[in-house]
Write a structure and sequence with these properties.
Elements lengths: L1 H7 L2 H10 L4 E2 H5 L6 H13 L3 E6 L2 E6 L4 H12 L3 H19 L4
Antiparallel strand pairs: 1-3, 2-3
Helix pairs in contact: 1-4, 2-6
């Protein structure tokens, strides 16, 4: 439980969770949304993964991240994001990314 609270104590990590709430994203897509180095974003992703909040999967040269929806903390975080004005734009952006990916996967883009 300590790892979970430490993971959630960081604003960038909470923002990463908001982005992942609507779409599975690769590390580069996540890093592009932050004004910090890619190694710093990678460290945040590692902390979230070690806390059991996200999971990663390597596909080719990319590592994709997704929320662990069965985690109670993520369930509570999703609820909080619904009422948090800061999370709403991040979730909308994530949903747009997800829609764009589906169009590419379907050969429409």
């Amino acid at each position: 439980m300590q790892k979970t609270f430490e993971a959630l104590a960081s604003t960038p990590r909470r923002k990463i969770l908001a982005y992942l709430s609507e779409a599975e994203l690769n590390a580069g897509e996540i890093a592009a949304r932050f004004d910090m180095s890619k190694p710093a974003v990678s460290q945040h992703l590692s902390i979230l993964e070690n806390a059991g909040l996200i999971a990663s999967e390597k596909r080719g040269q990319y590592v994709y991240y997704r929320l662990m929806p069965d985690n109670l903390v993520n369930t509570l975080n999703s609820y909080v994001q619904e009422v948090c004005p800061v999370s709403r734009p991040l979730k909308r952006e994530s949903a747009k990314i997800s829609g764009r990916k589906e169009a590419v996967d379907d050969g429409e883009a």
